[in-house]
Amino acid sequence: xxxxxxxxxxxxxxxxxxxxxxxxxxxxxxxxxxxxxxxxxxxxxxxxxxxxxxxxxxxxxxxxxxxxxx
Length: 70
Fold this sequence. Notes:
The chain has helices spanning 3-17, 22-36, 39-50, 58-68.
């Protein structure tokens, strides 16, 4: 799946959780990505993050960064 599509999908997930506040929303997004995204999708979004993360909303950027640190 293309990084652009994954960025779009991740940002949609981030918008869903945004009402929780930034810190909790980032944790919820990371949990969602861990539980429901295929490992190849996570690998691709982390690679996109490492390449600068163009287009990632701040909450999603924080969530993907936490996935990278695992």
